[in-house]
Specification:
single chain, 563 residues, 8-stranded mixed β-sheet, 5-stranded mixed β-sheet, 18 helices, 23 strands, globular, binds fe (ii) ion
Amino acid sequence: MNILGINYTFHDSTACVVQDGQLTVALEEERLTRQKHTKAFPVHALTRCLDIAGLTTQQIDHVAVSIQPGLDWTKQLVYGLKRGMRLNPFSLLKQRALRAWFEETFTAAPRPKLHFVPHHLSHAVGSFLVSPYESAALLSVDGSGEWATTFKGVGRANTYECFGQDYFPMSLGSVYEAATEFCGFRRNYEEGKTMGLAPLGDPENFGEAVSKIFWVKDDMSLGVDLSYFGYPTYRKQACGNKFYATFGQPRKPGPEAGFEQHHLDVAAAFQKHLEDCLLSIARKLHEHTREDYLVFSGGIALNSVANGRLVRESGFKDLYVIPAAGDNGTAIGAAFYVHNQILSNPRTYVHDDPYMGTEYPDPVIRKILEECKLEHQALPEGALETKAAELLQRGYILGWFQGRMEIGPRALGNRSILANPTLPGMKDKINAEVKHREAFRPFAPSCPLEDTPKFFEQNVADPFMLKVCKVRPEQRAVLPAITHVDGTARLQTVHPDTNPRYYRLLKAFEKLSGVPVLLNTSFNVMGEPIVESPIDAIHCFFSTGLDYLVLGDHLLGKRPLQE
Ligand SMILES: [Fe+2]
């Protein structure tokens, strides 16, 4: 039984393959076309997924798409007519691209069955079906799907119940996008920057004003004062005049523009109130379901600071967020919805391994290095990790390219830039010399799961870097390059079963430095997708201030390797 999963709706187009109930490959289109967050139909990702899975198109039984064109169309129609708005033909045009691909690809009978899975079922139920929990409360929150912006419910075995949904323009995602736009970042793409900026501001300065703009009602539904915004009528600006009258002039877009205090305070107030609203919904869900665990999904589930508070304060013991919690993950969710819900198969898969993408075996890497005439040193297992740890200890910045690429926006030790987190100037150095991005942006740490309690106030695993926690006060001076201004860090816990080489590197670094923690940031430069291939990695290596590059078993430097 082979299912192709597809997300191509709003952004982060993605394809995946589920074979006999197991996810075998998942790949974002942006990595192959180098167009970050692309919403193009993922034809390249689909082709590579089939190739990696070893399948021909004749072997595909089902195609699952994470949107249902026409769903909630009446709601959209009434909303549009009331406001005299041009209707959004988006989903109809998009459906045409899908149909064309389907006709071209599956020319011979029997053709696979095509399923359209509602967007929030792909988020919420799809995430639950690949979660480690037999039963859990479900919450998804994003800008909007077909028209819904949230899903609240419960999952048990392979069934679910929906308690309620909110619909556009009642949207936490859209409200947070407006704050992102106000701070000079690209809305719908750079909400992580708003989250990173928030600790620099005072959430109280605009706290009361923001709490009157959006809120959670007793029945868990959302309220938004739409008079502050332009997004409800698809205006170019997500913020409206009342927003500017309340909070001041927005920051000019671009990394060069400076921040005024009110920009920082807006980021802080919207972040804090978003967290409070999510906590309010989660606590009500906990009370209502009495479940121990929460499965959280949708673009807002990438807000790792909010997730950290949900772990600590919601009443749930832990939460599961799939590594591609945004729309990229809906390709996986839709495929499992078909497998477990529509085809009624029992659940047999847990998505605990994020390394589901492309891989380049050693002979391929060696051939590329030889063709590029690049001096390199091949090192056996063990020696490679020791040598890399030595270089990191000496303060060099490494590109680290290993095994299968991660699915989702976080580099988790296979397409990573690594550095020594104990050096005070390291954050500014990487921001300025390698990533070419805003100086305020923090970097994340990786740490073996068993060493976590010594350095971090985190008592749950976080292999996907999605739950921000406190660095222990006594360790903050030890780890200055990964400790944010508010004493927090977006920790990745590393386990030897899922990433043995990265685990060995952390342990080798501990032998030299006494600290089993590395600074881990995604292997890319600002504005580009994470590197996918050895050629992408080599290009990034030579166009930035990276000192060394480890490509599989091979070490490359910009200075003599014997040094
Ligand atoms: Fe979504």
